[in-house]
Amino acid sequence: MGSSAMQYSDVDASRLLFGFTAAYHFLFVPLTIGLMALMAAFEGWSLLTGRPALRQVARFLSWPFVINFICGVLTGYPLRSQIELHWAGYAQVVQGIVGPVFAFEAQVAPVLFTLVAVVALGWHLKPMLHFLASTALAVVLVVQSTAILMINAWMQWPEGAEFVGGQARIASVTDLAGHPLVAPKVLHTIAGAWVLAGMVAVAICAWFRLKHRHAEVASAGLRGAAVFCLVSLVITALAGHWSGERLVRYQPMKFAAIEALWETDGRNADFLVAAVPDRSAQHNRFELAVPGALGWVVDTRETPLQGLKALARDSTAGLPNVGLVFWSFRAMLVAWGLMTVLVLLVLWRTPDPQRRVGRTLLRACVVALPLPWIAIEAGWIVCESGRQPWVITGVLTTAQAAGKVPAAEAMLHLLLAVELGAVMLWVNVKLHLAHVRRGLSLVPQEVPQEVPQEVPAGLAAAGRRSHPAVLGG
C-alpha cells in the first residue's frame, strides 16, 4: 500500500512538472503563430489599399514575434527531455508516431528558420516580396503546429495508427490527417492563436492612443487588429461547436465532465452556468442551469448524452477532475465573451482619447491583455485534464505512462523550471516594454511632431538618426 501511494506520488510530481512546462511553453507558441498571421494580413491589406500604416504596425510587431519565437524554441526542448525521462512508458508506446513527426519537424526547420530571418531582417525588400515571405512563414507555422496537434488528437482517440507489440506505428504524418478530431482541434487552436495576436495588437495600439503617440498609425492598427480579432473569435466559436459535437461521440467522458453531467436522464439538455461538482459523491452540490441550452452546443435529440455515473461504471480507470474541467471551460467562455464585447465596441465607435468614454474603452483594451492567455490556458486544461486518467484514451493510463523518476527529483526539476521560467519571463516582458516605449519609430511622418519646437533642427536630426529602429532599421 505504501509503495503504491509512493508510486502515485511520483506520478503526480511528474504530472505537475510536465503540466507547468507545457503551460509555460504555450505562453509563447500561440503568440508567434498569431503574430505572423496578423503581420501577413496587415502587409497584404497595406498593399491592397496603398496605405503604409498597417505595414508599419506589422513591422513594429516583428520584434515581439522574434522574441516569442526564441522563447518558444527554448521552452520546447524541456518537453522532449521530460517525455524521455519522466514518461518513459508513454515514449515507448508512441515512438512510432512521435518519430515521424519529429522527422517532419527536422525537415521543416531549415525553411522555418530561413523565413524567420527574412521576415525579421528583410524589411528593406520590396513590400510584395516581404509580404510573400510573411505569408509563407505564417503557413509553415500552421503546418508545423498541425503535425503536433495530430499527435494530441490521436492521444484523445487512438485511431489511425497500427499497434504492433504494444507500440503504435504510422508510416508518415499524413496517416493521422483524416482523424475525426484533427480538423476541429487545429481550427480551434490556430484561431485561438490569432485571437491572442489580435488582442496584443489591440492593447499596444490602444496604449499609443492613450499616450497620444502615433495617432494615425495607432488608430489604423487598432481597428485592423479589432477586425482580425473579431473574425478569429467567430472562428473559435464555430470550431468549438464542432469540437463539442465530436466530443459527444468520441470522448463522452470529457464532454460529461465539461458539463458536470452525472445522470443520463431527461435533464441532459440543461446547460449549467455554475455548479459545485463533487466527484466523490458523484453529484453537484449546487447548480445554476439554463434549461434546454445544452442543445445549442449539440443536438441532444439525435445524439445520446451519457452521464458520468454510467461512464464510470463502464470504465476501469475512473473519472477526471470534474470540477477543474467544468470551471476551466467556463473561464474560457467568459474570456471569449469579454473579448468579443470589447472588440465590437472598438469597431462600433473608434475610441477617442479626448473623450472620457473613449479613454475608458482604450484602458479596457490594455487591461484586457491577459484574457486571451486565460482562454488558451483554460482550454488546454480542458483538453488535457478532461481525458484523465488516460494519457492515450483506452490504451495507456497516466500511471502506466510514467517513468521511474522519484517525486523528490521531479519536484527539484520543477523548482529549477520555475526559476528559469521566471527569469525568461522577466527578460521577455522587459524587452517588450522597452520596445513599446520606443514606439513606432518607423513612422517618418510622425517623428517631427515629437521633436520639441525649441530644439535646433540639427540636434533634432541627430536625435532621429540615433533613435533605435524597430527590427531591421
From TrEMBL:
It holds the Pfam family Cyt_bd_oxida_I. InterPro entries: Cyt-d_ubiquinol_oxidase_su_1. Keywords: Cell membrane, Electron transport, Heme, Iron, Membrane, Metal-binding, Transmembrane, Transmembrane helix, Transport. It is found in: Cell inner membrane; Cell membrane. Its main location: membrane. The chain crosses the membrane at residues 22-48, 60-77, 97-123, 135-155, 186-208, 220-242, 324-348, 360-382, 410-429. It comes from the Bacteria. It is a multi-pass membrane protein. Belongs to the cytochrome ubiquinol oxidase subunit 1 family. This is Cytochrome ubiquinol oxidase subunit I. It comes from Piscinibacter gummiphilus. The lineage of its organism: Bacteria, Pseudomonadati, Pseudomonadota, Betaproteobacteria, Burkholderiales.
